[in-house]
Amino acid sequence: MKKDENLIVFLKTIVRRIAGKSAEDIIDILYQKENVNEFKIAEKMKRNINEVRNILYKLSSFNLITSTRKKDKRKGWYTYFWTLDVEKALGTLLKFKEQEMKNLEHLVKSRQMKQFYFCEADNIEMSEETALHHNFLCPECNQLLQPANEEKKLKEINTRVDIAKKEYDLLKSKLDEITPKPVIKAEKIKKVKKKKVKKKKVKKAEKAKKTVKKVKKVHKLKKKVKAKAKSKKKPKKAKKKKL
Question: What angle do CA 166, 99, 18 make, to 5 degrees?
Answer without folding.
Answer: 95
